[in-house]
Amino acid sequence: FCISRCSYCDFYSTLSDDETRDAFLRALLKEIQSTGYGEPIDSIYLGGGTPSLLSPGDIEVILDALAHAFKIKDGAEISIEANPVTFDRVKLRAFRSQGINRLSLGIQSLNDSELRLLGRIHTAEDAIDAINMVSEVFDNYSLDIIYGIPCQDKSGLDHTLRGILTFSPPHISAYELEYHENTLLHKDLIQGRITPPGDPDVSGLYIHLCDVLTERNYVHYEISNFSLEGFHCRHNLNYWLRGDYIGFGPSAHSLIGDRRYSNIADIKEYIDRVERTGSAVEKTILLTERDRIEEELMLGLRTSRGVDRTRFASDEPVLGALERDGLIHKNPERIILTPKGMLVSNAIIVELLERL
Ligand code: SF4
């Protein structure tokens, strides 16, 4: 659920009303209880929409259901996503005492004009208040920012970076603004109300933020993710390394072995199907060996682990050219994208896929 729709968001979420929320929670618990998985669970991630709108009581019920349905490892990472103005200190402390040990806060920018353009419900001052509260209660937390916003220049981005770095957050995610169809931002773009920065400007902002964060000892462990030593997000890393994950709720996606499946992206349909059958799976794909190898390449190249070099043993001339252009590093075992390579990761992935 979200309080209102951000202008750039194409995730499935819906505006909350009490009746739908209660029915959703009942369905969610039933879906969790109806799902089996034998392996111990290393991370739980409460995300999508704004889970910090839920009450601590709701969160407790969800965590209890998960603890009954699955074997949760001691010390598992348990994260919740939150947005400014949707919580206070009391709520945060309640989340913490329920076992949530990591919080991901969407602040996006510390410039009010950029926040308005993004359709965010909060101001820069609200974001600073939120970071203050989160950093008091959680040792392990992440701040999300967006770059490449229309009218954003290097000084605008620097203002946001300076503001968040005063807190030395353990983890930062920095996403390039995208103009997805069916979003308000896309409509503004088509109707000429906004002009996005050009590719060279966006690339410059990305390289700049990589430089600033690396200088501040952040490990650039995935295209959009930076962490202080030991604070990488286990949940996300599992996703990029193609570990199993199970998603619950409308539009949730899962991967178990070579089976990818997703739930229906409609809350009423979701509730109805789960009530009737315990499941709301709409689509299932059985991956072939080739699909799996392609996914490993696409996801692995996003991370600082890179991909297995031996797969490309006969392609040294291509790898040499990419390295000379400053797009990859290679060591005897792995191929890893540089920040410059991450800017054109899709083209490099296509190039390497053709050689598999
Ligand atoms: S708060 Fe997050 S999920 Fe909700 S509309 Fe904004 S970007 Fe989308």
Pick out its properties.
2 domains, 14 helices, Arc Repressor Mutant, subunit A, Transcription Regulator spoIIAA, alpha/beta, seven-stranded mixed beta sheet, three-stranded antiparallel beta sheet, 356 residues, binds iron/sulfur cluster
Overview of this structure, please?
This protein has 356 residues and is of the alpha/beta class. It has 2 domains: 18-240, 2-Layer Sandwich (Transcription Regulator spoIIAA), CATH 3.30.750; 290-353, Arc Repressor Mutant, subunit A (Orthogonal Bundle), CATH 1.10.10. It is 42% helix and 19% strand. The chain has 14 helices and 13 strands. Strands 1-2-3-4-5-7-6 form a 7-stranded mixed sheet, with helices on both faces. Strands 8-9-10 form a 3-stranded antiparallel sheet, with no helix packed on it. It has a 3-stranded antiparallel sheet with strand order 11-13-12. The mean pLDDT is 95. Iron/sulfur cluster binds at residues 2, 5-6, 9, 11, 13, 49-50, 83, 106. The site of iron/sulfur cluster has 10 residues, from loops.
